[in-house]
Amino acid sequence: MVRAMLEIAFDDVGLHRVTGSCFADNTGSWRVMEKAGMRREQYGVQDSWHAEHGWVDGCTYAILRSEWEGSEGQRVAAGWGSRRSAEV
């Protein structure tokens, strides 16, 4: 899902940069972003409000269009393919 969203953001919308954030202890979320090629740019101590736990640590991830385009071969090799190839 994240890869499809990044493909839309860069290829269809034409964005230069995409960011995402999650709670620091949500390893599933930050692993998905890392697997999609995003890098951790910020770890914020108690910067995110959680309804059940109050203030918790958060992480911010980002990727540039140039990084996304440069990783296309790696995505295909990893079996991710591309939304466009699925449409053909």
Structural summary, described in words:
Residues 1-39 form the N-acetyltransferase domain. With 88 residues, the protein is an alpha+beta fold. The protein has a single domain (2-71), classed as Gcn5-related N-acetyltransferase (GNAT) (Aminopeptidase, 3-Layer(aba) Sandwich), CATH 3.40.630.30. It has five helices and three strands. It has helices spanning 2-13, 27-35, 65-70, 72-77, 83-87; strands at 17-23, 39-50, 54-64. The protein has a three-stranded antiparallel sheet. Strand 2 and strand 3 form a beta hairpin. The protein is elongated. It starts with a helix and ends with a helix.
Keywords, separated by commas or semicolons:
alpha+beta, single chain, N-acetyltransferase, elongated, 88 residues, three-stranded antiparallel β-sheet, Aminopeptidase
